[in-house]
Design a protein that fits this description.
Layout lengths: L1 H30 L10 E3 L10 E5 L4 E6 L2 E6 L11 E2 L4 E3 L6 E2 L5 E3 L8 E7 L2 E10 L24
Antiparallel strand pairs: 1-10, 2-3, 3-4, 4-9, 5-6, 6-7, 7-8, 9-10
The structure holds FE2/S2 (inorganic) cluster (FES).
The site of FE2/S2 (inorganic) cluster (FES) has 12 residues, from loops.
Length: 164
């Protein structure tokens, strides 16, 4: 009987250990910093009117967002300027909300709150021959703290856990 109990004990501990490893791996994959030097080319997207006012479009192949505010187009790196976590866009609030330390940014990537040193970094974006093009070789620091040039009021509550 003690042998059977020992085997069950080992099986439980092994299972719990594997679950722990899986949880750590999943968390790391979700939050790992992005490689800054990964990008490097010109991306040709659709016509500019495809990007409506106050919308955010995720461009998976370049890991960036295209947004439009006050008629201006922005190509925002999804890498948080604080420590590089992926910053998802929250449709409910109309804000980019970093899950790591709580930095928030408006639709143009302007910093609103949290420990980030500045707004979201921006790639060069322009319209060429009727198509939006993003140069992922040219990444500039986001606007300084306090910039409110493209500020829009929040749409609603935050997507973060326990946040209003
Ligand atoms: Fe985004 Fe720290 S990495 S707030």
């Amino acid at each position: 009987m003690p042998k059977r109990r020992n085997l069950l004990n080992i099986a439980w501990k092994t299972g719990a250990g594997l679950l722990g490893v899986e949880a750590v791996w999943t968390t790391y994959e979700a939050l790992k910093p992005l490689a800054q030097g990964k990008a490097g080319g010109t991306l040709t997207l659709g016509p500019p009117d495809q990007y409506a006012e106050k919308t955010v479009t995720y461009i998976r192949e370049a890991q960036l967002y295209v947004s439009r505010v006050k008629g201006e187009l922005f190509a925002l790196s999804q890498s948080c300027p604080h420590l590089g976590c992926r910053v998802p866009f929250c449709e409910a609030s109309g804000r980019f909300e970093c899950p790591c330390h709580g930095s928030k940014y408006d639709l143009a990537g302007e910093w609103l709150e949290g420990p980030s040193p500045h707004g979201m970094n921006r790639y060069r974006i322009e319209v060429q021959d009727g198509r939006v093009t993003v140069d992922t070789r040219v990444l500039k620091n986001g606007p300084p703290l306090g910039t409110r040039q493209y500020y829009t009021p929040p749409r609603g509550g935050s997507c973060g856990p326990g946040r209003a």
